[in-house]
């Protein structure tokens, strides 16, 4: 018998006794041990076998054993690959179901724009089935413990503070005019497009054309977005042949869908165009206008983690387990029924604040957070606990001493 070492000690003391295959032991997974890291070639092993003195019949048995042994890595990898392969998914219908001509007529009726003009615009649109497949794909929520590290990191803090400093005058004027904290606006832009540097790579016209004609479940919604986009292109000189954004039709540094753009985008620099792609003044003010219109409370907090193990009343325990924010009370009411849980809140929190409670999975386990009305306003931008908490934490990270948005 003999043994041979493998690279990196992934296969240890692999032994082939004469006449049969010995057991293979390894430190890692089978695919790690038997895959790319088997460094002894078939010819090398065969040569070493042939040097061993034995009878012809024993030699034949050795050759058979050697051949079988050399097949093990490949058979095992094939087995593991089969196990790891995704299960068969139901067929996703991605075919176009409404013609370009039909869509043009519908949009003309709904927007009042001449059908010939709409047809000319839609001639530049391409139907992309992969967008339908993306929309049909089941989305899985991830815990906050995995979402948070994407944004709460030193590099984003540096970039965010540099962005705030570069546009200090604009932020100061916008905050005074709209009553929305500058660090919250910056936090939104950080998550949405990394302060305007990642505005999306998909042609928005293609996305909305595809979803209007090949996604029946929400075709009316996306056709409405497409009509709004065409209106925007006429009013704000938007070139639809070059406009890029998300696969769902959001665009610009602020990632508004077209109907949100129509309602909340502003021409803050006064040039007659609502430019949320290039104009920092329009970009910053448009986010502020959105928050102001949804009731943002200036200089008020957003969320705060309660101490681990905080005792809640049965009613509130049931509420947090429902994972919604249907119940809102004054902080004073919560202090009255659960005094220990709220005994050490920062002074920024007031008894007349309208608040609720949620639970989220952190790296140190499931925790309960006190959330302010402002947290709900952030969720108007994106209806996700993860999103709203990340915005809050980014804002806290960008603050310079105020601690209004500190979460613990």
Q: What's the CATH architecture name of the largest domain? A: Orthogonal Bundle
The CATH class of the largest domain is identified as Mainly Alpha
Biggest sheet, strands in spatial order?
Answer: 5-8-7-6
User: What is the tally of helical segments?
Assistant: 18
Number of strands: 8
Query: CATH homologous superfamily of the largest domain - what is it?
Result: Bacterial muramidase
Instruction: Please trace the helix and strand order, writing H or E for each element.
Output: EEHHHHHHHHHHEHHEHHEHEHEEHH
Features:
single chain; 408 residues; alpha+beta; Helicase, Ruva Protein, domain 3; 3 domains; four-stranded antiparallel β-sheet; two-stranded antiparallel ribbon; 49% helix; disordered N terminus
């Amino acid at each position: 018998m003999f043994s041979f070492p493998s690279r990196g000690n992934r296969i240890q003391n692999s032994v082939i006794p004469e006449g049969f295959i010995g057991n293979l032991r390894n430190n890692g997974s089978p695919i790690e041990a038997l895959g790319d890291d088997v460094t002894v070639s078939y010819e090398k092993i065969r040569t070493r076998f042939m040097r061993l003195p034995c009878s012809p019949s024993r030699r034949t048995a050795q050759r058979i054993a050697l051949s079988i042994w050399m097949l093990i890595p490949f058979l095992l990898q094939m087995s593991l690959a089969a196990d790891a392969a995704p299960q068969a998914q139901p067929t996703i219908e991605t075919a176009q179901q409404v013609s370009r001509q039909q869509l043009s007529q519908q949009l003309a009726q709904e927007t009042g724009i001449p059908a010939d003009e709409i047809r000319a615009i839609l001639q530049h649109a391409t139907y992309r089935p992969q967008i339908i497949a993306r929309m049909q794909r089941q989305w899985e929520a991830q815990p906050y413990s995995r979402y948070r590290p994407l944004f709460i990191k030193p590099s984003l803090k540096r970039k965010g503070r540099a962005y705030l400093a570069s546009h200090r005058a604009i932020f100061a004027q916008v905050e005074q005019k709209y009553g929305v904290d500058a660090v919250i606006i910056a936090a939104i832009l950080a998550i949405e497009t990394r302060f305007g540097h990642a505005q999306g790579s998909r042609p928005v016209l293609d996305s909305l054309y595809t979803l209007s004609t090949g996604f029946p479940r929400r075709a009316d919604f996306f056709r409405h977005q497409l009509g709004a986009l065409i209106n925007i292109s006429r009013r704000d000189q938007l070139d639809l042949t070059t406009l890029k954004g998300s696969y769902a039709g959001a665009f610009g540094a602020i990632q508004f869908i077209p109907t949100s753009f129509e309602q909340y985008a502003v021409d803050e620099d006064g040039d007659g165009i609502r430019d949320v792609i290039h104009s920092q003044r329009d970009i910053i003010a448009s986010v502020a206008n959105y928050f102001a219109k949804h009731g943002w409370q200036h200089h008020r907090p957003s969320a705060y983690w309660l101490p681990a193990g905080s005792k809640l009343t049965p009613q509130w325990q049931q509420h947090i387990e429902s994972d919604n924010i249907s119940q809102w009370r004054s902080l004073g009411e919560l202090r009255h029924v659960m005094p220990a849980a709220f005994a050490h809140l920062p002074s920024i929190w007031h008894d007349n604040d309208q608040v609720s409670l949620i639970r989220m999975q952190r790296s140190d386990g499931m925790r309960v957070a006190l959330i302010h009305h402002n947290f709900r306003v952030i969720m108007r931008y994106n209806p996700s606990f993860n999103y709203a908490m990340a915005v809050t934490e980014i804002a806290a990270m960008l603050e310079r001493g105020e601690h209004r948005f500190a979460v613990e």
